[in-house]
């Protein structure tokens, strides 16, 4: 299913992840922000959180970023989750909707994590079918995000960029390219970052994510709790040269600083886009 270009309504500028500590400040002060992204599940069920988000959406383009669908999970798609997401999309009219390339449930048990899986042809057929059904239900194209992972599977039959390329071809989805996730995988598992950048279809990339990580017991962990590393900025610059400018998000989910710090990080991304 193909429903227009990925992120057609997002401005090709830098934005920030809008988390709870800053939502009221944004509503009341309307600071200079290119666009904002929120986690979809935080607004399921309506109520005060949705009311605040609708106020934000009156002044900024909004992207909905999901963390709970588990597209690679073996069981059926969660009908209740999809109904809530469709209701949220209808209410907010987001500029973009995205999800992670991961699984998170088995045999009726949900796991609060974004879990990796082997990149096999059977997994590709399974995920492509599920992405297609999600897009049919939502009536829109979605972006699929590359994952940060901490182990590799011997049973994988292709690299992640090959899997994503085939997923785009089969389902018509787009790609959310998380540059920090790629860096984490390169450091921990020796993933070839340049091969990834060159291997994904540039025309399918609808958004970049940038974030900070933490070194914990010798492992680089995607904590979203720090400023963007210099090495990630370098990878981002490489992606800009090879793929092109795209809407770019600064994510910060733990130890959240003042809004001005997020704006400063977004400005760093904007300067790199403007330099092209």
Structure write-up:
The chain has 9 helices and 12 strands. The strands form 3 sheets. An 8-stranded parallel β-barrel has the order 1-2-3-4-7-8-9-12. A two-stranded antiparallel sheet has the order 5-6. The longest helix has 18 residues. It is globular, with a radius of gyration of 18 Å. The N terminus is likely disordered. Helices cover 41% and strands 18% of the residues. With 276 residues, it is an alpha/beta fold. The chain has a single domain, classed as Alpha-Beta Barrel (TIM Barrel). Helix 4 packs across helix 5.
Give the helix/strand layout:
Layout: E1 14-17, H1 20-29, E2 36-39, H2 47-57, E3 62-65, H3 79-92, E4 96-100, E5 103-106, E6 109-115, H4 121-138, E7 143-145, H5 160-171, E8 174-178, H6 179-189, H7 193-199, E9 205-210, E10 214-216, E11 219-221, H8 230-242, E12 248-250, H9 259-274
Parallel strand pairs: 1-2, 1-12, 2-3, 3-4, 4-7, 7-8, 8-9, 9-12
Antiparallel strand pairs: 5-6, 10-11
Rounded average pLDDT: 95
Can you identify the CATH class?
Alpha Beta
Q: Main beta sheet: strand number and arrangement?
A: 8 strands, parallel, barrel
Q: What low-confidence regions span 5 or more consecutive residues with pLDDT below 50?
A: 1-8
Instruction: Please give the radius of gyration in angstroms.
Output: 18 Å
Please report the total strand number as a whole number: 12
Q: Which percent range describes the beta-strand content? A: 15-25%
* CATH level-two architecture: Alpha-Beta Barrel
Which labels suit this protein?
single chain; 276 residues; alpha/beta; TIM Barrel; eight-stranded parallel β-barrel; two-stranded antiparallel ribbon; 41% helix; globular
């Amino acid at each position: 299913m193909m429903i227009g270009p990925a992120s057609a309504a997002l401005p090709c500028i830098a934005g920030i992840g809008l988390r709870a500590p800053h939502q009221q400040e944004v509503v009341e002060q309307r600071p200079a922000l290119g666009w904002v992204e929120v986690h979809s599940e935080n607004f399921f069920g309506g109520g005060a959180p949705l009311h605040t988000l609708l106020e934000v959406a009156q002044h900024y383009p909004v992207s909905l970023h999901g963390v709970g669908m588990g597209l690679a999970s073996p069981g059926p798609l969660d009908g209740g989750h999809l109904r809530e997401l469709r209701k949220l999309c209808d209410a907010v009219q987001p500029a973009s909707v995205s999800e992670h390339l991961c699984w998170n449930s088995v045999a009726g048990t949900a796991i609060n994590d974004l879990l990796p899986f082997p990149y096999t042809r059977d997994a590709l057929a399974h995920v492509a079918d599920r992405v297609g059904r999600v897009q049919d239900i939502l009536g829109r194209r979605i972006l699929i995000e590359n994952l940060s992972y901490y182990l590799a599977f011997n049973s994988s039959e292709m690299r992640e960029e090959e899997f994503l390329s085939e997923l785009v071809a089969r389902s018509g989805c787009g790609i959310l390219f998380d540059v920090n996730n790629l860096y984490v995988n390169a450091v921990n598992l020796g993933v070839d970052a340049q091969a990834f950048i060159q291997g994904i279809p540039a025309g399918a990339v609808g958004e970049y994510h940038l974030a900070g990580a933490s070194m914990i017991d010798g492992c680089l962990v995607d904590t979203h709790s720090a400023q963007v590393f210099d090495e990630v900025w370098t990878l981002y610059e490489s992606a800009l040269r090879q793929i092109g400018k795209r809407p770019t998000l600064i994510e910060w989910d733990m130890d959240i600083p003042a809004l001005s710090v997020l704006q400063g990080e977004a400005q760093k991304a904007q300067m790199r886009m403007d330099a092209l």
